[in-house]
């Protein structure tokens, strides 16, 4: 004890008097004995202090020991009392008037302090809800030495009453309703078989099973009250006297003996603390051990407060003779035998720490805040100050040990700035390691730690930090930062390890390709990835791989974009749509068109129904049709790879002759390759546009543009012919001055019997007419087909060919002769037809005039409909048909025999009149007809576009169809 340091962590707040106020005492001055009352018992709880006097009075004091009120629960003396915590009840044991000699004067009472009753006009007292006689025939009377109440589930209480004969009377139940259960516990002294007095009691609740500690001067026992009967266990063969028993907040029994203070648990004696002196009173308050110790040499009493965890005396003071020790209002209350009271309170944590900091007792301060369960921020602040103190003394190792304990509460930059000096790099490394272990490191902290490792060249720690089993899984550091720092320090193996374990494939490949140039290993790594991850990595690094390993890269792309039969099942369009598209990888071939062509060719050979086949065919056509298989930036693509292979100017001059031969050879090879590609392009144009489909599997407009830009005549002719753009087809031959091919094309495309366009011959004739060259042979052949199909009038032919000064009349002499002869025959036929039409017209006019002026005689004797003899009533039509009236329908005004023919004529005229309003159709007929004049003449001849009034026609229609007579 003498080695323990003393501190004043507590202070005396005030002193008070535990007595009735003066105005109350004056009423009782007549009897002096009443003013000499002593305090028999004390209790506290629910913000009050309760004292019991030997005159049967119980007094209540509020905070600051202000007297509240008093009442007399017993007539003689109050021996024991206890204020309950869960309910505002007061349990007392005292002496009352003895009614009969057989009954004991001691009784137990329970008061409800929330219910007050008026005893007289000036005094009130709480309601007594229960009175119980302690001693009965089954429970003989003895002196009560200890009293303790355990509150179970309200209103159930467990009361233990210790006697001087070694017995304990227990009362359990609801005393207010007199529903109780009594039982007796016996403590035996095995040394001399005599009964010892109960000097202390203590309840311990283990779950729902209460246990009772019982102390006598010669033993310490533990009763398990949940057993029937209660089971007794002897914990020690040595006990203690009165007032030397207490219970800790961990339900440990505390016993004070002259040589030491002992702690007991359910399994026996625990730790002990050697404090000399007689222990007058023992208590426990907020983790502190309280002792009132009497010095046998001086006879003085000392009140000590012990902090057992930190091994220090928190307070020590000389006191008077203390009779009771209470705890209320957050303070310790010492009640003296002279009825005075001393209130001692604990100082706040800040004051205690300031006291320790002034003495540089940082270790004590740390232990103090940890034992008193201060918040983590307060503990970290104490540790920081201790670390600063050690740092100022240049004890850097110990300072860092303190700073490490502040991780999570102290800003790391505060510590890092102190240890940035190179001489303290080991301490800084230790701090940063702990910071990463707790997962509180930022990217900058990771960078700094890795720089420390690399600066120290501590490969072992670097391996431990990077390659530990749980480092990546718990993300103790920023992966990207670690990779970047390791790469900068040329620790590529470590950077690759981190990238691979963290699944950062892009970083792994970046190191392999950019730092190490391990292209084969990179391709193997990509092959081991899942399809989606492999596709993303190839998109990012495909340009480098294609440049150095084109064949292997294309193989990986083919595996990604096509189906693997062993792993991916049967081929179907739905699954193919889920695979990566080759179009997604076109950008990586930007400087390597030959590799792109190889890739797309292999893909199209494996996949026939790709969703992206239109885009693929467009790209292949661009590669096939292009004059040169390169891009404008191809020269820059080889800037690094072929730099060393570029010959000097002197070498080029000396080898000019050999280079010329080589250039010719390369030129021939290039031309051969171009022809092969164009053959592939033409095959693709044809195969991707099957005859049964309307639209091709490529962009037609793009294909035409490519063919025109690269002067790919064969492809252009095929596309124009498929699109039925025959005029554009012959225009291609005209541009090339391929007369033989032009005529052959017109023979194939100008045959109307096979769906061709005969007007092509007119365009060809116009071409030869404007050619300005002698093309008599070709013109004669063209005229043969124009004459055969009667495509152009002779006058147009003459006008067209007259523009070519190189052509003579002999070219068209035979054609003109034949045409004139043919025209003469046609004129003669037309004159004969005119004469015939004139005769027919005159006869019709005569018939019309006769119908208008002369009467018609009907002499038919039979009905036209039924062929029976015609009788009355009969109907006669102007067309000389007669019918029975019964053979005609109701309201029939037209001849049934002639009406269909007449209606067809009327309908035809109506259709012609409607067609005359459709100008587009009229002009289309004129345009498509060999002789447009004949179409116009037909419209005039049918009166469709004539301005002649149709009044006469209406009259004719009325006389022919509607005129009839009924006889």
From TrEMBL:
Residues 863-898 form the RING-type domain. It is found in: Endomembrane system; Vacuole membrane; Prevacuolar compartment membrane. It holds the Pfam family VPS11_N. PROSITE patterns: CHCR, ZF_RING_2. Involved in regulating membrane fusion at the tonoplast and the prevacuolar compartment. It comes from the Eukaryota. It is a peripheral membrane protein. One of its GO terms (cellular component) is plant-type vacuole membrane. GO terms for biological process: endosome organization; intracellular protein transport; organelle fusion; vacuole organization; vesicle docking involved in exocytosis. CHCR repeats lie at residues 403-554, 570-777. Residues 820-854 form a coiled coil. Keywords: Coiled coil, Membrane, Metal-binding, Vacuole, Zinc, Zinc-finger. Residues 655-676 are annotated as: Disordered. This is Vacuolar protein sorting-associated protein 11 homolog. Residues 663-676 have a biased composition (Basic and acidic residues). Belongs to the VPS11 family. Core component of at least two putative endosomal tethering complexes, the homotypic fusion and vacuole protein sorting (HOPS) complex and the class C core vacuole/endosome tethering (CORVET) complex. Its main location: membrane.
